[in-house]
Amino acid sequence: LFFSPPSQYKFRDLTIEELKNVSKTYPNFTFSMNTYTFKDGSQKDLLNFSGTVPVKYGNSYNIPICLWILDSHPFAPPICFLKPTANMGIAVGKHVDARGRIYLPYLQNWSHPKSTLIGLIKEMIAKFEEELPLYSLSSSDAARQSELLSYIAKITEGETDMKSRSKTGGRNEGCCNKITVVGAGDLGIACVLAVAAKDVADKVVLLDLSEGAAKGGAMDLEIFAVPNVEISKDFSASADSKVVVLTVNSLGNAQTYLDVIQSNVDLFRGIIPAVSHYSQNTVLLVASHPVEVMTFVSWKLSSFPKSRVIGVGANLDSERLQYMLTNLLKAEMLAKDAWVVGEQGEDKVPSWTSCNVVANQTEAMAARNSREKVANRAMEVLKGKGQRSWSVGLSVADLANSIVKDKRKVHSVSTLAKGCCNINSEVFLSLPCILGTSGVIEVVRLEEDPLVQEKLQSSAGSIHDLQQQLKL
Fold first, then answer.
1. In 3D, which of 367, 379, 377 has the Cα closest to residue 318?
2. Which of 11-25, 244-258, 442-456 has the lowest mean pLDDT?
3. pLDDT level of residue 162 (50, 70, 90 thresholds)
4. 299 pLDDT band (50/70/90 cuts)?
5. How is the chain split into domains, by residue range?
6. What is the mean pLDDT of the chain?
7. Is residue 368 exposed (0-12), middle (13-18) or buried (19+ Cβ within 10 Å)?
8. Torsion-angle region of residue 212: left (phi > 0), alpha (psi -120 to 50) or beta?
9. In 3-state terms, what secondary structure has residue 470?
10. Would you state the pLDDT for residue 166?
């Protein structure tokens, strides 16, 4: 009888079908259930299969591999390792690290139903034919490296991660506030450093989804050992995060703006289900571009309630506006009620959440004109400020702080705008929101202003039209 995964596998029929295809194409593979220990020390019984794949590199070689299938398969990629014998050494390279962990673009861009186990193995073979991952050891070398190989074997089973964790004093066991940042580009690094600097979390995990070993800023974080920061390529490291920050953007060769966004959507299809699986009560904080669309995509792919999927939106612009009104234009009374709302870019607009009571309509009109004149001056100055990675990182830390510490503070963030300002479509726009541990607690009502409402409705229409063209 063909090996059948247990009932814990959520998409059992799909998994069985894939395993049948693997068994048919590579009959040497053997299937079993074993306990896998993740980096945080948690354990789970998972299906794994081991065997060899044929690789031509001058001569023909049979490369031994082991694949662990997560119980959310096929919506999450497998965890892949080389399985060297005693006379084999690991050739650390672009796609293999010193532990034998295998990293491939196929895994990074995993997206069901496009991605399959057969497709993964085929890419593995192709990459190994470009750069052979193992080499033969002499008998004396094999004897000297037996201890190393034993160490690697334990890591592939997750055992050594538990040991190293206990050596660190078990800080993770008491970790109650974890924040995960997905993406190790400039923005991801800026978010990690800002969150660490503001002491928002007990632990910050940087998920580096780039190929091969840690590069650039992620490597520097490792070198200089920033306290309470862990760098990982394994989604399981994000388990039980209070906030997951998404900073990734596709670097594909898309030709049009729509192609660029679709490429980001395809990237998110391999990320959102995985982080949602490991942190089912988290708040997703989206900083990827365009933030309104990618927040909508994250909401759809995660199936989270709308309150727990928010975009960074106009938080940075709002904080800047309030700072300028208070410190440069000496309009402190106006600043506390001033917000930038709508969509990021040229179509953002200043608005207000309350109005000072005045004696008559003439005074009300004069107060409104004075207020708008000051706001317009501030917005003109804001145009020249731009949004660099480090400034967005500080904004992300500000939002994460309000969420993790349940500050109940008002921020202008991208939230589902349906029902606001006569918007009837499912689009995300920046609106003043009270944030706490569950994400958006309440959307603060904006003062009625026909120009602001017209601007928001226009943005909603264009964003909705764009979303309709995407393939989710």
1. 379
2. 244-258
3. very low
4. very high
5. 12-136, 178-311, 314-469
6. 82
7. middle
8. left
9. coil
10. 33
* C-alpha span between 249 and 289 (Å, rounded): 7
**CA separation for the pair 26, 45 (Å, rounded):** 24
**pLDDT attached to residue 37:** 80
Q: Which of 433, 408, 331, 313 is nearest to 377 (CA)?
A: 331
* pLDDT the model gives residue 156: 42
33, two tokens: 């259930």
Tell me the CB-side half-sphere exposure of residue 29, using CA atoms within 13 A: 25
Is 356 or 188 the better-scoring residue by pLDDT?
A: 188
Q: Give the tokens for residue 39.
A: 């980096």
CATH number of 12-136: 3.30.930.10, 3.10.110.10, 1.20.120.640, 4.10.280.10?
3.10.110.10
Single-letter code of the amino acid located at 376: N
Kindly indicate the confidence band of residue 63, based on its pLDDT and cuts at 50, 70 and 90.
very high
Handedness of CA 169, 170, 174, 178 (dihedral sign): positive
User: Does 178-311 match 12-136 at the fold level?
Assistant: no
CA distance 85 to 235: 28
Tokens, residue 292: 């309104």
pLDDT at site 175 = 52
29: left (phi over 0), alpha (psi -120 to 50) or beta: beta
| Strand partners for 65 | 51, 82
- Please, what CATH class does the domain formed by 178-311 belong to? alpha beta
Kindly state the DSSP code that residue 74 receives in the 8-state scheme.
Answer: T
Longest dimension (CA), the chain: 96
For residue 439, what is the enclosing H or E element? strand 439-443
State the pTM of this model. 0.64
Phi-psi region of 5 (alpha: psi -120 to 50; beta: other; left: phi over 0): beta
Closest CA to 207 of 175, 239, 162, 174: 239
**CA 64 to CA 466: how far, in whole Å?**
46
Instruction: Tell me whether the omega of the peptide bond preceding residue 105 falls within 30 degrees of 0, making it cis.
Output: no
Query: How many residues comprise the chain?
Result: 472
Amino acid letter for position 197? A
Mean pLDDT of the 57-80 span: 89
In one-letter notation, the amino acid at residue 227 is P
3-state secondary structure of 246: strand
* Contact of 10 with 71, CB cutoff 8 Å: yes
User: Would you say the C-alpha torsion 391, 393, 395, 398 has a positive or negative sign?
Assistant: negative
251 Cβ neighbours under 8 A, 6+ residues apart = none
